Amino acid sequence: MTDLSQPSQPAPLPGSGAQPEDSGTAVPPPLWLLAELTYRCPLHCAFCYNPLDYTDHNRELTTAQWLDVLRDARALGAVQLGFSGGEPLVRDDVEVLVEEAHKLGFYTNLITSGVGLTEQRLGDLKAAGLDHIQLSFQDSTQELNDFLSSTRTFELKQRVAAALKRHGFPMVLNCVLHRYNLPHVDKIIEMALALGAEYLELANTQYYGWARENQAQLMPTREQLEEAEAVVARYRRTHGGRCKIFFVVPDYFERRPKRCMNGWGAVFLGVAPDGAALPCHAARGLPGLTLPNVKDTPLREIWYESDAFNRFRGLSWLKEPCRSCEEKEHDLGGCRCQAYLLTGDAANADPVCDKSPFHDSVVKIVQRAASASVSGAATAAREQPILFRNDANSRKLAAAAREPGVGGDHGA
Ligand code: FES
Asked: Bridge-partner residues for 107, per DSSP?
């Protein structure tokens, strides 16, 4: 998953040098458009951030509708564009969308598992103007890579990585970390170096979507994290000039929350496969939030006027203890999705913060992970097997959520 917290500054619109349209409000324009082209995916990752009920939202926008989204977002001022999914390459129009995005002046990034990235498509995407490809791995070993994605894709990813180099793309590898692969961080870095990666993003699992369902199996111990951080620091010293290594710390182990999405409705605009507009990639899981759809509402209206994008924008909605907190301008109350998942109210302070009355819920999750030894985790996985992201499981979860009285799990 790409780090959304550090957006680039907006560039002038191509052509005339004109600036993004004036909104007439104090709200800045979106900078980052994430186009989730499809929920279809050949992988079944246990930590996927797609919504659990994604099978209920699988009527995808057409190519023409996506082209309109790109034009409207660029007119609003967006400059960075990520194509993701699911696996975006299951659609055969990615090249068309990249070409238009390039003409519009977006900096484009394809976020992919590598499945479907043939030599032909790589060449076509290069010709269309694609700037950047982020290739995901699940681990440095075939066994764990293939287990966690429930596929046989490890060797394919190695071949794709080599092909990326041949086609002159910067090599950006991404690996989501958790208790099973944190002990292999050195091997993961070695693999990235051997493949010639210029960038390696080691992103600790964020517990939304399918990862939240699998939290008991995936949550690491503090010792695992500290050891992995020390390994990363060592490699940065010895190989930092060759490969830039990012290590995204899991916020359950912090005492202050992250400034999630760099603020709600501040820089990030996501569009789901069915056209739902998302203030954050996990917003679909928030009950009571009606997501506007690009099929029936102009993007400008969605960004500036919709309830979904204004609900947690700025600071005026904050409740105590955030409202009177001197740090509120820094973290903006933290993550809304985490607040909902752990307290049942998205407007509460993110319970990662130790000033939150619900902070204990986070402490208990971390303690539970500490008390489960690695062999204990294997036992737990047998007793409560990992729930892989696939259509059958999604349909079951969607059906269960539709039953009256069945809500999210807000307990810790
Ligand atoms: Fe939704 Fe943080 S993930 S606000």
From this structure: 80
